[in-house]
Amino acid sequence: MPRPRRMRMVWLEPGVTYFKPAGVRMVSLQEVTLTVDEFESVRLKDYEGFDQKEAAKRMKISQPTFQRLYESARKKIADAIVNGKAIRIEGGNYMLVGGPGRRGRFGRGARF
């Protein structure tokens, strides 16, 4: 039996959860799904400027796990940009800990 996954600490939920290329109709649009914990890894490393060790510590995961999460997110984002796909942000295995009144919310799967 596999070991259960640890919850990843997320400090900020995305305010916008869907991005689509301009000029492409929704009917013919393909999507890439970015999980909330993948979004958090990109936010901490690229936007906030933390190094991997500090970002992993903030998410309460190991540095190799952070690296895998970050690489997965970057690959999905690159796929969406290069191939003109929409990006949907949802799901993942995380716990929201940031912000006032947001303690203790859990997220799993497609909806939380």
SSE inventory with pairings:
Layout: E1 8-10, E2 18-19, E3 31-34, H1 36-47, H2 52-59, H3 63-83, E4 86-89, E5 94-96, E6 105-107
Parallel strand pairs: 1-5, 3-4
Antiparallel strand pairs: 2-4, 5-6
Helix pairs in contact: 1-2, 1-3, 2-3
> DSSP helix count?
3
Average per-residue pLDDT, rounded, comes to 86
Tell how many strands the DSSP assignment holds. 6
- Which CATH architecture is right? Up-down Bundle
CATH topology: Butyryl-CoA Dehydrogenase, subunit A, domain 3
Order of H and E elements = EEEHHHEEE
Principal-axis shape: elongated
What does this structure look like?
It is a single chain. The protein is of the alpha/beta class and 112 residues long. The chain has a single domain, classed as Butyryl-CoA Dehydrogenase, subunit A, domain 3. It is 37% helix and 17% strand. The chain contains three helices and six strands. It has helices at residues 36-47, 52-59, 63-83; strands at residues 8-10, 18-19, 31-34, 86-89, 94-96, 105-107. The strands form two sheets. A three-stranded mixed beta sheet has the order 1-5-6, with helices on one face. A three-stranded mixed beta sheet has the order 2-4-3. α1 runs antiparallel to α2, α1 crosses α3 (63-83) and α2 (52-59) packs across α3. The radius of gyration is 15 Å and the shape is elongated. The chain starts with 7 loop residues before the first strand and ends in a 5-residue tail after the last strand. 23% of the residues are buried.
